[in-house]
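Good morning,

Attaching, inline, the backbone tokens for the sequence recovery test we're adding to the shared suite. The designed sequence is right after.
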């Protein structure tokens, strides 16, 4: 039995170990593959896709602003026709409608006038806070810029302005023109990138300032706001595309890819939180682990059931007589050995009965072994019917049977033995099998304090053969 359970435990351990190991190995391989694919393929390719969309949505306005700044009509109008407001109004309105821009503007350096498609709006001056963008841009060397700001002249909404300086042939600045896009539109574009690609997209200038971002999602205003990211500033803010892995202050792992956009003079940052992409891998790991454990448990259960079934069969083969279904000699010996050891410490009254079917060889020779087997089976049934559940009984071998009466005096045991002898002799089933009665001879002895199993068996065996010699079908005792 111990060996049986040991085998089950070993099989269970090996199956569980194999299931968990395969699940863990598969998880590690899948996780590594997902991260490699994200770093080397998905992130760069998605950045290029995003850049393509940016070109559609942002580069187009930049090119329009550049075209306006170089338009000869605009240059000539600023130089000599600015008093004709309707001309510039018509020009700006045509650009706005043709390219479906949110707003189109022009600022004159000579008059400091600010124009929209609906005409003159205001006279700019350095004291007006809302005009700071113009004077700051004017003082810079760059010929264009991307600026995000509130515009009080356009519903006080936040806009992204693409500003271009206008120069004459001698490179004297004549003014600034450009287009504006509502940030709400940009928010939708960046939101789509986040929801579709699972990437956070934002634009950074050379100083590390976050110029364009999805409001309500990106809390960064400068790379300095994230120390772990800022320490890689020099790697990211270059003309070369770069991908790097870093960990934020909360311990989350990120991959970030940077790409310089010369048309905007900005850096496109595409950030991926690794757990957003490995979450499915982890979920698959848990599912695989649970399924493999369930399968392992089912297999262990099936094996345990089979082992238990075979073990029971083997135990029956080892302990039960196959023909009579009585315990065999081995079981009787084991139980009597234990009983005698107990009897040495605490003596009890016991008797042993040994009996043999009379003339059984003659029955086999006359009627055949199949009838002899039926006789043995019926006598086993009679034996079970006439002894108590607390008694020990067995088929000793051949046509011999043995019984131990526990807590029974010799007189009480003789009474039971005589009843058993009579039951065999008078049994109708046995008479029908042979057309005559079947008898048995019995030897009965009391277990003494100093007795061993060998000495007891020797006594009852002697009594049995004495009963045979005295005429059979009788009980002799001592």
């Amino acid at each position: 039995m111990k060996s049986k359970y040991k085998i089950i435990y070993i099989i269970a351990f090996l199956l569980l170990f194999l299931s968990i190991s395969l699940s863990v190995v598969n998880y590690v391989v899948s996780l590594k593959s997902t991260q490699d694919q994200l770093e080397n393929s998905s992130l760069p390719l998605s950045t290029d896709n995003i850049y393509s969309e940016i070109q559609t949505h942002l580069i187009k306005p930049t090119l329009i602003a550049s075209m306006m700044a170089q338009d000869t009509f605009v240059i000539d109008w600023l130089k000599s026709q600015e008093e004709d407001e309707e001309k510039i109004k018509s020009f700006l309105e045509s650009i706005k409608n043709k390219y479906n821009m949110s707003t189109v503007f022009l600022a004159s350096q000579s008059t400091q006038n600010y124009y929209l498609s609906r005409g003159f709006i205001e006279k700019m001056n350095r004291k007006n806070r809302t005009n700071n963008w113009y004077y700051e841009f004017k003082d810079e060397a760059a010929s264009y810029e991307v600026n995000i700001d509130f515009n009080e002249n356009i519903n006080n909404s936040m806009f992204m302005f693409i500003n271009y300086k206008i120069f004459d042939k001698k490179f004297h600045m004549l003014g600034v023109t450009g287009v504006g896009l509502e940030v709400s539109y940009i928010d939708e574009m960046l939101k789509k990138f986040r929801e579709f690609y699972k990437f956070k997209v934002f634009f950074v200038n050379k100083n590390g300032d976050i110029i364009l971002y999805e409001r309500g999602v990106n809390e960064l205003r400068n790379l300095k706001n994230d120390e772990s990211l800022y320490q890689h500033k020099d790697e990211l803010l270059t003309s070369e595309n770069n991908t790097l892995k870093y960990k934020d202050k909360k311990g989350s792992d990120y991959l970030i890819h940077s790409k310089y956009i010369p048309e905007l003079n900005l850096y496109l940052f595409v950030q991926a939180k690794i757990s957003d992409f490995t979450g499915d891998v982890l979920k698959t790991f848990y599912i695989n682990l649970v399924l493999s454990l369930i399968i392992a448990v089912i297999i262990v259960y099936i094996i345990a059931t089979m082992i238990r079934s075979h073990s029971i069969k083997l135990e029956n083969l080892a302990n039960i007589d196959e023909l009579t279904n009585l315990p065999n000699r081995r079981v009787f010996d084991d139980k009597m050995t234990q009983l005698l050891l107990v009897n040495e410490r605490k003596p009890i009254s016991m008797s042993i009965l040994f009996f043999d079917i009379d003339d059984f060889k003659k029955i086999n020779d006359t009627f055949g072994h199949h009838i002899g087997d039926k006789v043995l089976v019926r006598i086993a049934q009679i034996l079970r019917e006439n002894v108590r559940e607390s008694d020990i009984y067995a088929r000793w071998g051949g046509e011999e049977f043995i019984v131990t009466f526990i807590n029974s005096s010799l007189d009480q045991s003789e009474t039971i033995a005589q009843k058993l002898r009579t039951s065999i002799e008078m049994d109708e089933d046995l008479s029908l099998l042979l057309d005559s009665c079947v008898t048995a001879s019995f030897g009965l002895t009391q277990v003494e304090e100093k007795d061993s199993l060998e000495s007891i068996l020797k006594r009852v065996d002697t009594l049995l053969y004495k009963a045979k010699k005295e005429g059979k079908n009788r009980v002799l005792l001592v």
